[in-house]
Each structure stands twice: as structure tokens, then as C-alpha cells.
Amino acid sequence: MMKKRILVILGHPSAESFCSALADSYIEGAQAAGHEVQLISLGRLSFDPVLHDGYNTIQELEPDLIAAQTAITWAQHLVFIYPIWWGAIPALMKGFIDRIFLPGFAFKYRKNSLFWDRLLLGRSAHLLVTMDTPPWYFRWIYRMPGHNQMKRTILEFCGVKPVKTSSFGPIKISSKQQREKWLKQANIYGQRA
């Protein structure tokens, strides 16, 4: 198996969350398989998540965001671990993406055209997503808005492909045994990255 450079982005603001435990388990599995891994915990970064002027004026990036762009450039495989809140990704994670997936870094519109160049080609991704909604309900009733947002309108838009999604839930009523099973699955995902 080819060894990869993997960037794990923990999108839950709390280091005490089940998402954080999933990240730890994934990283442990990936490192055991010989992959090189970096971790970005969004809750520990210092940055303004608000894109104050849209893309009309690019805000100066804080040092943590410059480091995050460097890590994304380095990575061959991106792993986003986050909860679904109100059907979508957490606000902190959305702000992170708004601030660093910028024109000229993640994509570039062609002059006088609606078409664009995908600047993050050559990378794959895996989304490990927790939710309190049963995954089948999120898929068939809600039509997976948060998954589609990350996969189609963010990552694939920027050239990241393939994007795999694994859903864990419902977290709220899960047993200790179920959570341990999910942690083992995250470890296996890391080993097979």
C-alpha cells in the first residue's frame, strides 16, 4: 500500500467531543499503517471566521490560516471530521473554508467566463461525519444537505476527488459499545487511507 500525506481537519470546536475521539482513532490507525499525518483542530486556531467583504477584497490571512493552506498544499488526502448541526457543517468550519478556500488557492474563475479551474486537483478526501439524526433519515428524508455541501459544492468544486463520506449516528442515543465500534471503524479507515 502506498504511504500518503494525510491532513486531518477536526471541525468540531471542542477537543472533548466524539468527533475529537474519532480524529484520534483515525490518526492512530493511519500512523500505524505508516502514513504521515498532520492535524488541524479548528477550535484551537486563532482567526476571524467572517468573510467581511465577500471575495471583493481578500482579507489578510492570520498565521494559523496561512499554516492551514500550507498543510492542504502538502496533503495528498484530506480528512474532515465534524458534526452535522442544523443539517450542515458547523459555523466555525464554514468560516474556515470561507477564509482559506480562496480564489487563486482552491479555484480560479476564467476571465469573462462562468467556468473555473480546480486548483486542488490530485487530492482525495474522506468525510467522517457525526449526527443525532439517523443516517438513513438524513439521506432519504433530508437528502443529505451537509454531505452535498462538503462533497459537491466545496471539495469537488476545487478538484478534490474522490470524496468518500462515512456517517456516524445517531450519537445522542448511542451506547458505549456502539461508540467503541465507530472508533474502531475510524481506526480502520486511517489504516486503509
TrEMBL record:
Superkingdom as given in the UniProt entry: Bacteria
Keywords: Oxidoreductase
Pfam families (alphabetical): Flavodoxin_2
A GO term for molecular function: NAD(P)H dehydrogenase (quinone) activity
Location of the Flavodoxin-like fold domain: 4-181
A GO cellular-component term linked to this record: cytosol
Family per record: Belongs to the NAD(P)H dehydrogenase (quinone) family.
Designated name of the protein: NADPH:quinone reductase
Organism: Cellvibrio mixtus
